[in-house]
């Protein structure tokens, strides 16, 4: 009689993250970034889908399998030097890799937590954006510009939304988010379907690498749609801290009905410690509406006289991918250094498939 031998499951892959000196397993259904975040490691990241390059790391040893071709965003020189995107890299069972992560010395560090929150307000801001207020069962600390993942119990996949207000020292129990209705979006379909005040959410955060770097250079901010949230958070925090850097803020919207929180921006401008110029730009405002402000696409205003001395400014961009991509092209042509441009692409559900 022959015995029946069961094949032993293969050991998961492993990654050693330097200079943190951390070893952790990477399951076959995880990216390196997923494994790190689920282990509570504060790994630099933003979009998680291979467009922002915040998780760019150097592969020192071992091999990874690319979920999405790294050459989509990394240059030939970067690929030759061994750079990969942690969010698009998988590790084969039994494989061991060593990954070197570039960590900005200024990067804020807050412990990532998962907690429960109750929706306490759901206030319409435009026809397709609401302000969501959520009260937590414990404080959550974050840096202005970062985001949290929100998930009601019946939805499997959480969706990430930027904090829309400056953080409070010691952490916040009440969070604010600007949520835009996404056609076909599971979370926003549920949220906009009927009032959800009183409903519970699972909150995980903070995450993201969008935050104001210390420097003396003047600033330019560009936001579109619900991308106002992280910019407003950064501006409010900077005003609270007395940051004295000249700033121009370009806010792109379709029509006057899509402009919101103008009173908050005005209040920030009134107490900014240097010069502050706010330019709302409307792309689809009817020509006979009486609007006397800027018209066109917001990226068309990334130049003098609206933004003087653009080459010497540090740029912070938040909004839909087409806006970000157009802004990056304009800034590069204007001579703004890559290291002085920071952005957060607001991807919808279709971008995550």
Question: Main attributes?
Answer:
six-stranded antiparallel sheet; 3 domains; Ubiquitin-like (UB roll); 32% strand; Elongation Factor Tu (Ef-tu), domain 3; 353 residues; 19 strands; single chain; 16% helix; Rossmann fold; six-stranded parallel sheet; disordered C terminus; alpha/beta
Overall description:
This protein is an alpha/beta fold and 353 residues long. It has three domains: 13-101, Ubiquitin-like (UB roll); 113-207, Beta Barrel (Elongation Factor Tu (Ef-tu), domain 3), CATH 2.40.30; 219-352, Rossmann fold, CATH 3.40.50.80. The protein is 16% helix and 32% strand. It has six helices and 19 strands. It has helices at residues 32-38, 76-80, 186-193, 228-241, 262-271, 321-333; strands spanning 13-18, 22-26, 56-61, 65-66, 83-85, 89-90, 96-101, 113-124, 129-140, 147-151, 159-162, 172-180, 200-207, 219-224, 247-253, 276-282, 294-295, 314-319, 341-345. Strands 11-10-13-8-9-12 form a six-stranded antiparallel β-sheet. A six-stranded parallel β-sheet has the order 17-16-15-14-18-19, with helices on both faces. Strands 2-1-7-3-5 form a five-stranded mixed β-sheet. A hairpin with a 3-residue loop joins strand 1 (13-18) and strand 2. The longest helix has 14 residues, at 228-241. The radius of gyration is 22 Å and the shape is globular. The N and C termini lie far apart (50 Å). The relative contact order is 0.12.
